[in-house]
Amino acid sequence: MPRTPSPSIPAQNIRVTLKDVASVAGVSAMTVSRVLNAPDTISAATVARVREAIASTGYVPNSAAKALRSSKSRLIAAVLPTLTGSVFLDTIGALTAALARRGYQLMVGQSGYSAIGEDQLITDIISRRPDGIVLTGVVHTDEGRRRLLASGIPIVETWDLTPEPLDVLVGFSHEAVGREVSRFLVGKGRRRLALIGGDDVRSKRRWTAFAKSARALGVPAPVARFVSAPTTLAHGRETLRALLAEHPDVDAIFCSSDALALGVLIEARAQGIDVPKQLAVIGFGDLNFSAQLDPALTTVRIDGPRIGELAAHCIVARALGEPLDERIIDVGFTIVEREST
Amino acid sequence: MPRTPSPSIPAQNIRVTLKDVASVAGVSAMTVSRVLNAPDTISAATVARVREAIASTGYVPNSAAKALRSSKSRLIAAVLPTLTGSVFLDTIGALTAALARRGYQLMVGQSGYSAIGEDQLITDIISRRPDGIVLTGVVHTDEGRRRLLASGIPIVETWDLTPEPLDVLVGFSHEAVGREVSRFLVGKGRRRLALIGGDDVRSKRRWTAFAKSARALGVPAPVARFVSAPTTLAHGRETLRALLAEHPDVDAIFCSSDALALGVLIEARAQGIDVPKQLAVIGFGDLNFSAQLDPALTTVRIDGPRIGELAAHCIVARALGEPLDERIIDVGFTIVEREST
DNA sequence: TTGAAAGCGCTAACAA
DNA sequence: TTGTTAGCGCTTTCAA
C-alpha cells in the first residue's frame, strides 16, 4: 500500500476550515482571519497560538470563499495567441514571476490565431472574476473588446502601441520598428528591400511602415511575402527561395522573427549567396541563439521580460485602485547590429 | 471621455447575479441554474425565456460561488520549472487547449530550478482548490510531496517515469533514452562518447544510463560536462571547446537539448571539425529548426503535445472520479536519424 | 418540471 | 484587541 499516507503526516485535510482552527486555538473565526490578513491588529500571544493551530491542523485557506466574500480573486488572466513557440513567452514568464511575488496567480488562456472560441474564452475568464486581464499580442473582435470593457475588470494590453488602448498599454510601436529597419538598411547602402513576415496584424503594421519609409527614402518599393503564423525556420527557407526566384535583385531582407531569419541564412548558404555581401538579413526578437549564428544575426531586440514586469506592476496597481503615472508605456526596441547586415 | 462605454453596450454589469436573471425571466434562481447546468430537465419554453434573460442582462456566472458551493473549481494547476525557453512548452500548450475543450482552465505556477518558494507556491495552489494538479519536470522536496498528497487533490506527473509516482504518471524513461543513445552511437562505430547536459535530475539520469550502457558495450568510459539549466546555444559552444581541449579524441556527443547541439555544431564548424565524419552529434528535443540545420541534426524526439493531451485526459478523469485504465503511461521516444551522426 | 430553504467558507461592518 | 452577525452567489437537498 505505497499510496496510503504515512502516519507521520499531520491530520491535514482539505476540509479543515477557519472554524476548526479557531476552536483549536480557542478564539473566534474572525481572529484567525485577522491573523492571516492583518496580524498587526492582533496581540502577539494570540497570533502565536493561532499560528500553532494552523500548523497543527494543516489549514490552507479557501480562495473561493475569500473571493466570493471580498470580491478579490488575486487571480490575473493572461490571454495570448498560443503558448507554443511564442515570442511572448519571456513576457508571460516574467509576468507570472512578478505576479507571484505580489501574491497573485496567473491563469492562461490561448485565443488561437483565429477569432473562433474567443467568445467562450472571454466568458470563461470573466466568470472567474479575475482582478485583472493582461492581453498579449491579441487582436479582438469588436464584440470581444466590448464584453471585456463591460465587465469592468482592469485590462492591460501589451506588445503593441495601438492608437486607442482599452485602458493601460505596455508595448512599443511596430510602425517605428518598420520605419527604423528600413532606414537602417538603406543607410547601409541597400536599395532592393524585402520583408518576410507572419500574417498577423503586428507584422502587417511593421510592413506598412517599412514600405512607406523605404519609398520616402527614395529606393524602389520593397516586396513582401507573408506566411501563416507561427513562423518557422522552414518558412524562411521556402520563402527566400520563392522570393529570389521572382526578385533576384533583392539585397536586404527584414524577417518577422529570428526563426525565419535563421531559415533565410541557411537557404542563402545552400544557394551560395554571401551574407551580408550579397544579401543583408535582419531578424526580429533576438532569440538566444541569434548572436551565436555564423554570420551572427542582426536583429531587433524587444525586452520581453520588462514588458511582463511592467504589465504586472500596472495590472496590480489597477486591481488595487492605485493611481498610475502613465497609461501608455513605450518600452521601445533596439536594432542589434551584428554580422548579417 | 473615450473610456466611457458607448450607450450601445447593453447594461452588462459584473454584478448581475442569478437572481437578477431569474426575476427578469419570471422564474426562480434555481431554474436559471438548471438551464445553465442541466437544460434537459427544464421545459423548452422556460429554457428559451431564461436564455433571453441571460442575454439581455449580460449575465456571466460567478465561478467562485459555484466552486464554493459545489467544491468543484474547474481549475487545473500546472507546475513547471520556468516558462522561458522550456522544453515543456508544447506540453503545456496542448494541456491548456485540451483542458479548455473540456471546460477547464489552467493556472500556471513556476517553481524555478530551486526549492526556494516552492512551499509558498504549493500553499497558493492548494488554496485555490484546483480539481487537479499537473506536475511537469519538477522534483519536489519530500515536504512538498507530502503536502500535495495530503491535500487530496488528484495529481498527474509528466515527463518522467519515476519508480514511485505520486498517483498518475505520463512520461518516458530517461534511463532508456540514455541507454538507447549510447547503443545507437556505438552501433555507428563510435568509441569515445561524451555528453553535454543541463544540471537537472532528468539529465543526470540519462547520463548515468548512458555511461553504464557504454561500458557494457565495451567502449571506454564516456565523459560528461554539465551546465546550469536552462541550456543554451552559447553553453554548447563553450562546453565543446573545453571538452575537446581536454579530450581531443571524443568522436560522439550526446547533447541534452537541441539548443546545446546547435552550439556544438556551430563551434565544430568554427574549428574546422567535420560533422559527422570526425564528430557525431545527437541532440534531444527535436526543435522545429533541427531538421533544417546543415548538417541536419540527429536527435531524440519526445511527443510533448501528446504528453499534454494525455495529462489532460488523466487529470480530468481523476477530477471526475472516473476510472483510469492505467496509472503509468509511457509515451516513449524516437531517435530521429539525420545527417549529424 | 419547478421552487424554497439552507449553507459552502470566508470577511465587511458593527459592537463590545 | 476580539467577537457577533450577516451575507457574498451559487448549488444541494428536499418538497411540491
Describe this protein's structure:
- Two copies of one chain form a homodimer.
- Chain A has 341 residues and is α/β, with parallel strands linked by helices.
- The first copy, chain A, has three domains: 18-61, no CATH class; 73-173 and 304-331, Rossmann fold (3-Layer(aba) Sandwich); 174-302, Rossmann fold (3-Layer(aba) Sandwich), CATH 3.40.50.2300.
- Helix content of chain A is 42%, strand content 16%.
- Chain A has twelve helices and twelve strands.
- Chain A has helices at 18-25, 29-37, 44-57, 63-70, 89-101, 118-127, 142-150, 174-187, 201-216, 233-246, 258-270, 304-319; strands at 75-80, 105-110, 132-136, 155-158, 168-171, 193-198, 223-227, 252-255, 280-284, 298-301, 328-330, 334-336.
- Residues 1-12 of chain A have low confidence and may be disordered.
- At the A-B interface, helix 4, helix 5, strand 2, helix 6 and helix 7 of A face helix 4, helix 5, strand 2, helix 6 and helix 7 of B.
- Chain A binds a DNA duplex (16 and 16 nucleotides) through residues 17-19, 27-31, 33-34, 37, 41-43, 46, 61-62, 64-71.
